[in-house]
Specification:
Length: 266
């Protein structure tokens, strides 16, 4: 009887906890969508320029934050059409994907980590990766405002030897940055064009700071493989363009480190 009572209590607790997770996740998703929309333009100082008005999503978010994407997505799902000329179907899809992703991320983190202090740095890392993937895909940009804090948080977390040793974290950050930076400089010297941006180098340094040197090589292998397959596929499907067309490498690096950690975990 006591076991049944305990089971019922836990189910009741979980029933009340799910709406809280969803509410917090959707709020975080809105913040991420807002940041992904405004940050690239804010970094370029576009707010004082008249052609800012050409970016319709910015006009929408200026008056819709923080609940704009919730209302937008709900209205679209119910009516199956866009009621605001300032947004596009891609923008709605991106909002939906980000909000669903934040629900999954927060749920998995709470399940794995629980209500401990580690939840905050892990959630910061996951949301940072999601934000970087969006911005790099849309703008070919990995802002220092996101990458550098993630790097320092990783070094801080591993100062307690949580994911790897402090020594591994420091050397991971150094080797991560210097390796991609060297490849970038060699490629530019040989081809005369930029092969990798400094943002990619800093992102790779983040991986080293969080998971150590041993995570770098498999991450780079997976990212290069997936990026090459998708890049060549895009070239053939579009039937135009060239191999020199820039492709954002950040999302593939993030996918690589996620798959590497999932493989090691399971």
């Amino acid at each position: 009887m006591n076991d049944l009572t305990l089971l019922s209590s836990s189910n009741l607790y979980f029933f009340y906890f799910i709406p809280i997770i969803i509410f917090i996740s959707i709020l975080i998703g809105n913040i991420l969508n807002w940041t992904a929309t405004f940050l690239p333009y804010a970094l370029e100082g576009y707010y004082s320029k008249p052609y800012l008005q050409k970016t319709s999503q910015l006009k929408y978010f200026e008056h819709a934050f923080p609940w704009g994407t919730i209302l937008l997505v709900t209205r679209y799902l119910l009516c199956k059409k866009i009621h605001d000329h300032r947004v596009t179907k891609y923008f709605i899809l991106r909002c939906m994907v980000v909000e669903i992703a934040t629900i999954i991320i927060l749920s998995l983190l709470i399940y794995e980590v629980g209500a401990s202090w580690l939840l905050l740095p892990y959630l910061t890392l996951a949301c940072g990766f999601l934000l970087l993937a969006i911005i790099d895909s849309e703008h070919h940009l990995l802002p220092d405002a996101i990458t550098l804090p993630l790097l320092w948080v990783g070094l801080f977390v591993n100062s307690f030897d949580l994911l790897t040793s402090t020594q591994q974290a420091i050397w991971g950050a150094i080797i991560g940055y210097s390796s991609l930076y060297s490849v970038s400089r060699i490629f530019k010297h040989l081809r005369g064009i930029e092969g990798l941006g400094l943002g990619d180098c800093k992102l790779f340094a983040i991986f080293g700071a969080w998971w150590g040197v041993h995570a770098l090589l498999p991450t780079l292998f997976i990212a290069s493989l997936v990026g090459s397959v998708i890049g060549i596929s895009r070239l053939f499907l579009k039937k135009r363009g060239s191999l020199t067309e820039p492709i954002p490498f950040g999302p593939y690096l993030i996918l690589g480190v996620v798959l590497t950690n999932l493989y090691e975990y399971y």
